Fold this protein.
Amino acid sequence: NAGVTQTPKFQVLKTGQSMTLQCAQDMNHEYMSWYRQDPGMGLRLIHYSVGAGITDQGEVPNGYNVSRSTTEDFPLRLLSAAPSQTSVYFCASSYEPATNEKLFFGSGTQLSVL
Amino acid sequence: EDKVVQSPLSLVVHEGDTVTLNCSYEVTNFRSLLWYKQEKKAPTFLFMLTSSGIEKKSGRLSSILDKKELSSILNITATQTGDSAIYLCAHSGSARQLTFGSGTQLTVLP
């Protein structure tokens, strides 16, 4: 049971670089999302998708792009990395697209931007 | 703007103790209140409480929703070192977004 798979687990970037965080799920979930977790601030929603071809912004979308070409994959792109994007990123999916409750989380990506 | 506040921020107890974690919320449209446990990395789902299900129990863990007081508690009895984790509370509103609190860091000492 793979569940939600994120790659890479760790990444160090220089300011201005771009990169893509990968997320894949094998549970046929329609709903997928990206969160960032910062100390003392809990999890904040970046972008989400309720199905292939459909994406929407969350609470903190600036500086990030997403696409959803298949049900399984939901990559997160950092366009021009900034130190403020240093964080732990989680991808999550749910089989309840109407409510996105009962999320299944990936193991996270620790990103440092220098 | 929806808001979820958890207390305490951190808690240190000894094995066998009982703990109560608190979660209060300010939301425009209540749908459900969720609890997650985060150990080393990925949060894992514990409970979901709704208007039709205000109390849930699983082994030594239980949770109650108080819609009048806009709050929820998570109780853990006979704590074990394996209960050490960050416990996250989240609200699911009408905007298909979960709003998370900042979490309570629980440390259980042997």
Notes: The interface with chain B takes residues 4, 31, 35, 40-45, 48, 50, 56, 58-59, 90, 97-108 of chain A (CB under 8 Å). The radius of gyration of chain A is 13 Å.
